[in-house]
Automatic annotation (TrEMBL):
Keyword ATP-binding: no
Name the record gives this protein: Protocatechuate 3,4-dioxygenase subunit beta
Gene (UniProt): pcaH
SUPFAM superfamilies: Aromatic compound dioxygenase
NCBIfam families referenced in this protein's UniProt entry, alphabetically: protocat_beta
Top-rank lineage group of the source organism: Bacteria
Length: 242
């Protein structure tokens, strides 16, 4: 067996937002005041609990149908697809992705969401899927709506989908957000604008992909997730990546 060797991919920390970003109001209270401590993972965190691939249902990656009871949910039907890759662009197979989002009106199915938009009775807003042998994934959903949040007098979150990528155990979890090409609210969002590097923001924006669209049914957006290296996708719960 030969072991592949190559250059070490140094993280580009200039892509990471500062912990204290006053325009993002809640970071003022949450940002640390003392140097951070690095805590190593225990063996139980590394090895488990694990996810059984047989636990996936046939509709888990179809948010249009996996909660519907009386008809399809309201909204623009879309397909989100892409690949999960490492720092060398190699696909990461059999990786669990979980997604959750607001409905087409910009409201989450959560008791704490008091947005004026109505709850869609046929939309649960969450799903999951596994990458294939090449690291590819896909799910079907409706495009989420923008919604106001209590950061400033008139701040709105751009349309986005939350994505979790799991490693070999549930404790190995990376979380990011995917935005949509052409959304003018991206440049106005205090959360997005905490990223100092425009290229890091661009990596969170999914371009329209007409080649993967279904005629007269669904538009498509492509979102690739890079786990490590200089071009790593920004992960909000672990900025340095895996």
């Amino acid at each position: 067996m030969t072991v592949e060797t190559g250059a070490f991919f140094m993280r580009d920390r200039r892509r990471h937002p500062p912990a204290l970003s006053p325009s993002y109001k809640t970071s003022v209270a949450r940002s640390p005041r003392l140097p951070l401590l690095s805590l190593g993972s225990t063996m139980s965190e590394i090895t488990g609990p694990v996810f059984g691939h047989g636990d996936l249902g046939p509709l888990d990656n179809d948010l249009i149908r996996n909660f519907a009871s009386t008809g399809d949910p309201v909204g623009e039907r879309i397909i989100v697809h892409g690949r999960v890759v490492d720092e060398r662009g190699r696909g990461v197979p059999h990786t669990l992705l979980e997604v959750w989002q607001a409905n087409a009106g910009g409201r989450y199915r959560h008791r704490n969401d008091r947005h004026l938009a109505p709850i869609d009775p046929n939309f649960g807003g969450c799903g999951r899927c596994l990458t294939d042998e090449t690291g590819a994934y896909a799910f079907r959903t409706v495009k989420p709506g923008a919604y106001p949040w209590r950061n400033g007098a008139n701040d709105w979150r751009p349309a986005h989908i939350h994505i979790s990528v799991f490693g070999t155990g549930f404790a190995q979890r990376l979380i990011t957000q995917m935005y949509f090409e052409g959304d003018p609210l991206i440049a106005r969002c205090p959360i997005v604008q905490t990223l100092p590097d425009p290229a890091a923001i661009e990596a969170l924006v999914a371009p329209l992909d007409m080649n993967a669209a279904v005629p007269f049914d669904s538009l498509a957006y492509r979102f690739d997730i890079v786990l490590r290296g200089r071009r790593s996708t920004f992960f909000e719960n672990r900025p340095e990546g895996n």
